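Protocol step 4 of 6: structure prediction from sequence.
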Amino acid sequence: MYLAAIAPITAIPRPNPQILTYFTSKKLAAGCLVMVPLFKRQTPGLVLKIKSLRQAKSLVKQTSYGMRPISYVINSQAILPPAQIQLALWTSQYYFAPLGRVLKSFLPDIKKLANINFGLASSPIDRRQPTTRNPQPANLSSDTASQNEIIIQTIKHALDTNQQTILLVPEIHQIKKWQIDIEKEFNQTPVIFHSRLTPKQYFLNWLMVRNNEAKIILGTRQAILAPAQNLGLIIINDEHSPFYKSYDQKPYLNSRDVALKLAELIDAKIILASATPSIETHQNSTSPIVQPATCNSQPPTQVIDLRREIKAGNYLLLSRALQQKISDLLSQKKQILLFINRKGTASALLCHDCGQTINCPNCSVPLITHQNYRPGVMALTRDPSTTKVEIPETRNHTSISQLACHHCNYQQPAPTACPHCSSHWLKTIGSGTQKLLAQTQQLFPRAKIAILDKTIAPKPQDEQKILTAWQDNQIDILVSTALIFNLAPDFTADFISIVNIDRQLNLPDFHAAERAWQTLKRLQRLLCRSELVGRHAEFISRHSEFISGSSINAVDSGSEPGMTTFLIQSYNPKNYAIQAIAQNNDQLFYRQEIKNRAHFFYPPFSHLVKLTIKHKNNTFAKEQAQILKAKLDRAIIKVPDKIKILGPAPGFIPKIKNQYIWQIILKTDPKIMPKLPILLGIIPKFWLIDIDPENLLS
């Protein structure tokens, strides 16, 4: 007779026990799947440990409950390797998530695993046993083209040593480009993981990895959970991206941090690659620095103080200097990118009589104004007969035809009168891509202008159409949101201006300055990308030690000005994020941002925990938040300096989809993170718990 420690693969609310003990007459393998009784139902479970009854006599005597038998074995083979099981246990503990829910994210459909024979070649190997070593990540910071070439060469080295590689990318649209590069370079198709796979596709890909038939695993955040058994290399591309954090499904884990833990467990090499490393990565970096291929000349940056434009009577989105620059460039047949990170015409529709905005009935936000462009077509504005793409009529189309909520997708026609006071004096406030397009058309009526945002280009093929038109010189001026970064490294421009960086800088979130600086840095790099073509081979040969395994930081070096102008418009031109770009001094930004984070006890000097309650009754949500705050105050009385509590307070957007939102933020000293589950155990199950949130505004 044997006793088995089993994790039921179902969400058992914390802090209830996540691992239960059952007895069985069979000696089962750790990692195998069984069916067990749980309350009044049957549920699958993963065997974590097994002991003979003789070894566990003392445990049996101490139990105050009757043990139940395993119902039957689903698959007697080890479904997950030992390191994957350890990773699941760590993930459950760190993110205070039900272990069963975590295990579900590691596995395909349980029904498909019944009686699957994995074969001898795929049995867990000794090297996969968890280790006690803590390998330092290698940090790669370079322009996109150089970075991609280094990654390819590093994968080649892993393949030469017969090791598997996991390459993570933050967004699905990036997978195709990497797939093409990998197939071209290695003559093999990577196994792909992302959220749009069908259950059948996911299972087949999971099975290939489990059977050790896949050497390169490519995907978004869930790819890190693939059951690789000979994993030697993990690459986190664009490691700074917030999309590595799961925000739309539980458990709310960060794949970058899970990857770091996995590398520690199996002693694998891990590379954190980013042209704009996160503050955490920069602060925790301990490796030496080398210089990759960079522009011979950084684009000279001009910063426009928009306060002076207002004083001069210019209320347009384009400053006088920017208007002159565009005019000069158009006469030289140059191409111009105008960046504004908001789609639509304006932020809101305001009544000048009563002062009310027209708000979403489901959310506590104003409805965004839109012109009625059809999705999937470009908004070009000159001589449609000469273009190769479908063009809607946009000339002189400045009226507002649609109001939309970007949180719940509610839409309604734009009213002709105020619904509050019936006044017809309605005016838009704020700005978006369509408003910028309209003003640019008025200033430059002969220019060919296009928009790139999610309304105009909802699908990757729509983005590609716009890129093709740009490369064929069918577009003089492109008005774009952050979708422009999807086109890198194929997109280059002669001139780039960010119309207003202040909205991003002024968000009430500790990441605001970092995200704004990263946006500016990525735009700046679009200007010098064409110069970098063909200069990567030299860098690869000079730094072969990075590829073969040394822990090195690769960062861009400064260089002399003298290239195409990059223009930033802001009401706060002295902000350190803007000045770091203007002076081409990354360390200026990092020093000030790290100083700010330390002063206000934000990551990496603390860990954050976001506690959120959502309810249709605002009074109930507020009362529950106040009750929990009182509980937390009593619980931390012995360690007041180690944990700081902010709130309770309404969410940045107090109501979304007819649910009121209240939040409490915990700032915790990293040293007490192992004890945090004890504190979180007092939180009622209807609260959402997010460890290390990437966003405090949702």
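Step 5 (inspection) to follow. The domain at 2-112 is CATH 3.40.1440.60 (GIY-YIG endonuclease).
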